[in-house]
Amino acid sequence: MIAAASRRAVRIPFVCGSALELPFPTDSFDAALLSLALHEHPEEERHTMVREALRVVRSSGTLLVADFAKPICPGRHIPWQIIRAVERSSGPEHKAGFLDYVERGSLDGLLARLGLVAEATRPSHFGCIRIVTLTKPTPAS
């Protein structure tokens, strides 16, 4: 995928790495994005991924996170039922991560456990995905 992207965007460098250990120095970027990356991982890895994304963002920079959010009436929510079916059929590890993620309150629960407060929140995909914007705090001097 990196080779295909590089052919299309010749002036943008692409790097292969892990969100668990980003290959960039601290405070490297104005913004970072985690898109549908958290739900399939165990809780400890989710925490690490968010911390790593915040680590590489400069003070007062932005972290944009988009991931699943369980709707209010999930049993009658057809798009949510489709997502659940896909996630449950994606292999035992993926399924376990998804079920744990949802049971723990989805994205809102994760942010609360990390002590993070979203600056802005937007629903997407019929309310099945939540997009949040976080601003990295400026360190106290």
Pick out its properties.
alpha+beta; Rossmann fold; four-stranded mixed β-sheet; 37% helix
Short description:
It is built from five helices and four strands, in the order αβαβαααββ. With 141 residues, it is α+β, with helices and mostly antiparallel strands. It has a single domain (2-135), classed as Vaccinia Virus protein VP39 (Rossmann fold).
Question: What topology does this entry show?
Answer:
Layout: H1 2-8, E1 29-35, H2 43-56, E2 57-68, H3 78-88, H4 92-103, H5 106-113, E3 120-124, E4 129-135
Parallel strand pairs: 1-2
Antiparallel strand pairs: 2-4, 3-4
CATH architecture group name: 3-Layer(aba) Sandwich
Strand arrangement, major sheet = 1-2-4-3
What percentage of amino acids are in beta strands? 15-25%
Derived from helix and strand composition plus strand pairing, the structural class reads alpha+beta
CATH fold group? Rossmann fold
Helix percent reads 25-40%
Main sheet overview: 4 strands, mixed
The CATH H-level superfamily is: Vaccinia Virus protein VP39
CATH class designation: Alpha Beta
Calculate the mean pLDDT score and round it: 91
- The count of helical stretches stands at 5
Q: Radius of gyration from the CA trace?
A: 16 Å
Q: Report the order of strands and helices.
A: HEHEHHHEE
Number of extended strands: 4
Report the principal-axis shape.
globular
